Amino acid sequence: MGLVRQDQQTAQRPVRELERTYAEAVKRRDAGTLDGILAADLVEISSRAEVRNKQQGIDDFKGSPDFKVEAFDLDDLNVRIFDDTAVVSGRSTLRVIYKGQSNTNQFRHPHVAACK
């Protein structure tokens, strides 16, 4: 039996806040916050189709004089709660400067979170 609509909205709030916290951490290149948010056994696919672990993903956003995050925006978020699990789909738009060249990429992403 699914949650009634109001309960779904209430359950979605912390998940949506977590997504905002993640986006802000990426913008600030805040490795500590990313480390606290992301699961130890994270597996992700990079924009170059590389399979990466948590540390590799965090290292991408650590300081480098050649790399600057100009913007990181999330939109089209869809949050579904199933018992103690949240499934999020959305679109990420990442704008960076790498070695003086501006580049913007959009990605569709799934995120899965444990609800407490």
List keywords for this structure.
single chain, 116 residues, alpha+beta, 3 helices, globular
Give an overview in words:
- This protein is of the alpha+beta class.
- The chain has a single domain, classed as Roll (Nuclear Transport Factor 2, Chain: A).
- 33% of the residues lie in helices and 43% in strands.
- It is built from three helices and five strands.
- The strands form two sheets. It has a three-stranded antiparallel sheet, covered by helices on one side.
- Helix 1 runs antiparallel to helix 2.
List the helices and strands and how they pair.
Blueprint: H1 5-28, H2 31-37, E1 43-45, E2 51-53, H3 54-60, E3 67-82, E4 85-98, E5 101-114
Antiparallel strand pairs: 1-2, 3-4, 4-5
| Overall morphology | globular
Compute the number of structural domains.
Answer: 1
Q: What is the typical, i.e. mean, pLDDT?
A: 88
Instruction: Determine the CATH topology.
Output: Nuclear Transport Factor 2, Chain: A
Largest sheet, strands/sense/barrel:
3 strands, antiparallel
Amino- and carboxy-terminal Cα gap = 19 Å
Radius of gyration: 15 Å
